[in-house]
């Protein structure tokens, strides 16, 4: 049975925890709004670029499609770009991503990580880590470019025959789905589209079927200049989504923590008051019995 | 019925401008490119420069960076690093960006950084050019 002083102490500590989690929730909420906006604003660009690439690819003559980045090789060794957060306290976000990463065979998979949690995981499980990147709260384009450069050199050196990216896709504030997309080699791309951009998808679907499109200077030259740009944008967008997910997940988990702390405070206060009441009743009884024995 | 072009200008920051226009003039890499309704399907690159739009009787101008453009059945999608409307250009900032890019070019840099600095330089030059010629 906890004494009254113990309970008082506990209430105090829970109150201060609630204050901290509340503050973290506010910070995450403010950052979340900004990063969600950035991620959502970036989507039309990424999608239009993707679809443009698809339509150009469909116009390449078979022998023209010789960019080394598109060559499919038998997969002996794979590489995974694992995008995670730097800090914890964001619910199951990192755990889900790491579970996705565990599906790859540790013996022949190289890891490139962006975000500290991912590299900690790779170190701890003694997998092969070949590159470690960090990115800011508002991801910079140059950070994405560095990651792509590394991935391309891994692929061209033959150290990896297939490169995938693991990152969370942002659905809404409550749900983030870990997903794994192939980055290299760039093979048959399919037009993609978010829910809001169906018209765009239709557009590019029909344009990719169109046979007499003109390309200036040529489909091949256009394709080659579009490819690196495409990959940079892709990774940049992944980083943006990562941040949006991180802050949403953190806000939600901090809100849960605050709620839990508040309900714990309520319970403890009731318990404390009951104990206090019992104490007073006992004291009154003692006084009453003392006076009755005296008279 | 006079048909219109459906123009959409997209940058990584979002859709900057979209709407129906009469004609567009783009800074293509092989020279200026005027697009009217009924243009044949075309995909090409654009370089940093001035993009002018004719909408009804009005003309307006944007400064754009490097990018790509796709024209298909009166849909014009412009994909670029930067797009600023002429009256939204901050001259002081553009001059500053130009100076910074020039300074960076003088240092010892890797090829990639040189390319980035040159792109920034071209962008700020485009901004200034549009600002000078189009805003009174």
- Second CATH tier, the architecture of the largest domain in chain A: 3-Layer(aba) Sandwich
Indicate the low-confidence ranges of chain B by residue numbers.
none
Shape of chain B: globular
Helix content of chain B: 25-40%
Q: Greatest contact pair?
A: A-B, 29 and 25 residues
Q: CATH homologous superfamily of the largest domain in chain A?
A: ATP synthase, F1 complex, gamma subunit
Order of adjacent strands in the largest pleated sheet of chain B: 2-1-9-8-5
Count of separate structural domains of chain A: 2
Task: Note the main sheet of chain A.
Answer: 5 strands, mixed
| Shape call of chain A | elongated
| Helical percentage of chain A | 55-70%
Physical arrangement of strands within the biggest beta sheet of chain A: 3-2-1-4-5
**Architecture of the largest domain in chain B, according to CATH?**
Sandwich
Number of strands of chain A: 6
Quaternary structure of the protein: heterodimer
On the 0 to 100 scale, the average pLDDT of chain B is: 83
Beta-strand percentage range of chain B: 35-45%
Radius of gyration of chain B equals 16 Å
In whole angstroms, the N-to-C terminal distance of chain A is 36 Å
| Total of DSSP H or I helical runs spanning 4+ residues of chain B | 2
Helix/strand order of chain A: HEHEHEHEEHEH
């Amino acid at each position: 049975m906890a004494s009254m002083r113990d309970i008082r102490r506990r209430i105090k500590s829970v109150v201060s925890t609630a204050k901290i989690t509340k503050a973290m929730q506010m910070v995450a909420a403010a950052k979340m709004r900004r990063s969600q906006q950035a991620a959502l604003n970036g989507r039309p660009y990424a999608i239009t670029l993707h679809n443009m690439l698809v339509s150009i690819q469909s116009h390449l003559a078979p022998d023209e499609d010789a960019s080394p980045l598109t060559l499919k090789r038998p997969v002996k060794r794979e590489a995974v770009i694992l995008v995670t957060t730097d800090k914890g306290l964001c619910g199951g976000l990192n755990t889900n991503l790491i579970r996705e990463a565990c599906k790859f065979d540790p013996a022949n998979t190289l890891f490139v990580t962006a975000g500290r949690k991912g590299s900690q995981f790779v170190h701890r499980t003694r997998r092969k880590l070949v590159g470690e990147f960090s990115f800011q709260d508002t991801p910079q384009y140059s950070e994405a470019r560095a990651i792509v450069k590394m991935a391309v050199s891994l692929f061209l050196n033959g150290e990896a025959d297939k490169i995938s990216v693991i990152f969370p896709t942002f659905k809404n504030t409550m749900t983030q789905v870990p997903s794994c997309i192939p980055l290299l080699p760039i093979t048959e791309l399919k037009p993609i589209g978010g829910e809001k951009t169906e018209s765009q998808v239709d557009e590019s679907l029909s344009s990719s079927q169109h046979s007499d499109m003109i390309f200036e200077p040529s489909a091949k030259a256009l394709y080659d200049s579009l490819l690196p740009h495409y990959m940079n944008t892709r990774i940049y967008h992944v980083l943006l989504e990562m941040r949006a997910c991180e802050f949403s997940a953190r806000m939600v988990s901090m809100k849960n923590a605050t709620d839990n702390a508040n309900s714990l405070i309520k319970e403890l206060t009731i318990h404390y008051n009951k104990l206090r009441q019992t104490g007073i009743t006992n004291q009154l009884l003692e006084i009453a019995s003392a006076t009755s024995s005296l008279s | 019925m006079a048909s219109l072009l459906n123009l959409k200008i997209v940058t990584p920051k979002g859709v900057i401008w979209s709407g129906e226009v009469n004609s567009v003039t783009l800074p293509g890499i092989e020279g200026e490119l005027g697009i009217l309704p009924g243009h044949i399907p075309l995909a090409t690159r654009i370089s940093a420069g001035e993009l002018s739009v004719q909408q009804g009787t009005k003309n307006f101008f944007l400064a754009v960076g490097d990018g790509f453009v796709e024209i298909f059945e009166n849909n014009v999608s412009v994909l670029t690093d930067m797009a600023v409307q002429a009256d939204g250009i901050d001259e002081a900032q553009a001059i500053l960006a130009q100076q910074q890019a020039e300074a960076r070019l003088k240092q010892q840099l890797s090829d990639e950084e040189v390319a980035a600095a040159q792109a920034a330089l071209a962008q700020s030059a485009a901004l200034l050019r549009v600002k000078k010629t189009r805003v009174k």
